[in-house]
Amino acid sequence: MRCGWRRGWIAKVRIEPGLTLCRFARCGYALAMEQGTSDYQSLKILLAEYVPIDRDLLHIAIGLVLTMIAVVMARRSVHLKPFLGALAIACLLGAAMEILDMRDDIQSLGAWRWRASAMDFIRTIFVPVIGLFIVILIRRNRSL
User: Fold this and answer.
1) Is the pTM of this model over 0.85?
2) What pLDDT score was predicted for residue 37?
3) Cα separation of 122 and 19, whole Å?
4) 35: how many CB neighbours lie within 10 A of its CB?
């Protein structure tokens, strides 16, 4: 048994053959899942239980939050750097999430669901790309 309750990690405890009890130690949440479920997938399932939106919309929400941070950092001006930073972070975060999904897909399914991963990556970077295009258009119109 691995327990990291002091750091707030997910702890797995075997409860019956083939299932584990996955709980987030700080809030006492419990969920039975398959034995081979990784910590990343357990965290995604836990997040999906608490956040009442679809997993696809969660990717868009991540991009939206990053874009909103860029808007706050720009401080009423049209600077390109915060939006490029938001796009770079969205790309890195999206790629990292999909690499973890790829690893779990190969372990559990035997193959990578690359189309689903590509769509998740596109959903993650969609809003920051739109924000960057808007900033570029505003800057271009101001310079004319």
Assistant:
1) no
2) 76
3) 33
4) 11
Residue 65 burial class via C-beta count within 10 angstroms: exposed 0-12, middle 13-18, buried 19 and up: middle
Is the pLDDT confidence value at 6 over 50? no
How far is Cα 21 from Cα 113, in angstroms, rounded to an integer?
26
Q: Which of 28, 20, 25 is nearest to 9 (CA)?
A: 25
Average pLDDT over residues 92-114: 93
Cα–Cα distance measured from residue 46 to residue 137, given in angstroms and rounded to the nearest whole number = 40
Tokens of 143: 């310079």
User: Which residue from 25, 66, 23, 63 is spatially nearest to 45, judged by alpha carbons?
Assistant: 23
> What tokens were used for 82?
């915060």
Question: What integer is the mean pLDDT of 31-45?
Answer: 72
Collapsing DSSP to helix, strand or coil, 34 comes out as: strand
**List of residues 6+ apart from 47 with CB closer than 8 A:** 58
Residue 80 half-sphere exposure toward CB, CA atoms < 13 A: 6
Question: What's the rounded Cα separation, in Å, for the pair 61 and 59?
Answer: 5
pLDDT beyond 90 at 68: yes
